[in-house]
Write a structure and sequence with these properties.
Blueprint (H helix, E strand, L loop, with lengths): L1 H23 L8 H23 L1 E6 L8 E4 L5 H9 L4 E5 L8 H7 L3 E3 L5 H16 L4 E3 L17 H9 L3 E6 L5 E2 L3 E2 L2 E7 L9 H32 L1
Parallel strand pairs: 1-9, 2-5, 2-6, 3-4, 3-5
Antiparallel strand pairs: 6-9, 7-8
Helix pairs in contact: 1-2, 2-3, 5-6, 6-7
């Protein structure tokens, strides 16, 4: 019951922070994108602050946090990683579904920050458009974040990496930094937030120039191996907390 109560308090915190930041920062939409990106980073850090102090769910970062024009390829379990990567990275642009741009307010901010919307039904043309947008973002010295499986996965679900990440890697000629985490254990669905510590780990960078097959094999092997280790550590942590 305590977990549900703290989750409810966090939901209130999340709603209040989101409404206040979105309304106060509306004038920033008239300014250069860096101002909107800075506001988004503040929002994400406020959300993580509330998650830690209200719901008892903290964050541990391992590895070297990437900086500058790199491609970050992250495991995707929940909405948590989109918030955490926004808070940790410096002004990232994230690959997202095109339908999200139609949302009021959120869509305005996403467009201003040059988020990379993709229409999965558009096929090759969507990939070319995304690659062009990603090249522009990298040219601004910002990182591009992509979730290689395209959608959220359940904990321990078999991986399903899409070829789009390899195509983007090949066209951008950029270094790719894999990222693993265990958020799926703690950020449970749309409501429940279990106490503990989510670990976000940035792995050894993959240099540009690999063949698509070699890149995909390297990326999947690194992310999945690290993810399984982090999930095991998280499950042990949860068992200790339940026993306490």
């Amino acid at each position: 019951m305590i977990g549900y109560f703290r989750s409810a308090l966090f939901a209130i915190w999340f709603a209040l922070v989101s409404v206040v930041v979105h309304l106060v920062c509306l004038p920033l939409l008239l300014l250069p994108p860096r101002f909107t990106c800075a506001a988004a980073r503040i929002w994400a850090r406020l959300v993580l602050f509330g998650l830690r102090w209200v719901a008892g769910l903290g964050l541990e970062i391992r590895g070297n946090v990437p900086d500058g024009p790199v491609l970050v390829a992250s495991k995707h379990f929940s909405a948590w990683e989109t918030i955490a990567l926004m808070a940790v990275l410096r002004y990232p642009s994230m690959v997202m579904k095109k339908s999200l741009l139609r949302l009021p307010v959120n869509g305005w901010y996403s467009r201003k920050m040059h988020m990379l919307a993709i229409d999965r039904a558009a096929g090759a043309s969507a990939l070319r458009s995304m690659a062009a947008g990603a090249a522009w973002v990298l040219g601004q010295g910002r990182p591009v974040v992509i979730f290689p499986e395209g959608t959220r996965k359940s904990v321990h679900e078999p991986p399903d990496y899409k070829p789009g990440v390899a195509a983007l890697y090949a066209q951008l000629h950029a270094t790719c930094v894999p990222a693993a985490h265990n958020s799926g254990l703690f950020w449970d669905g749309a409501f429940l937030r279990r106490p503990g510590t989510i670990t976000l780990q940035f792995l050894e960078p993959i240099p540009p120039g690999l063949s698509r097959r070699e890149f995909m094999a390297t990326l999947q092997t690194r992310v999945e191996a690290a993810t399984e280790q982090l999930l095991e550590q998280g499950e042990r942590q949860m068992a200790v907390l339940r026993a306490a």
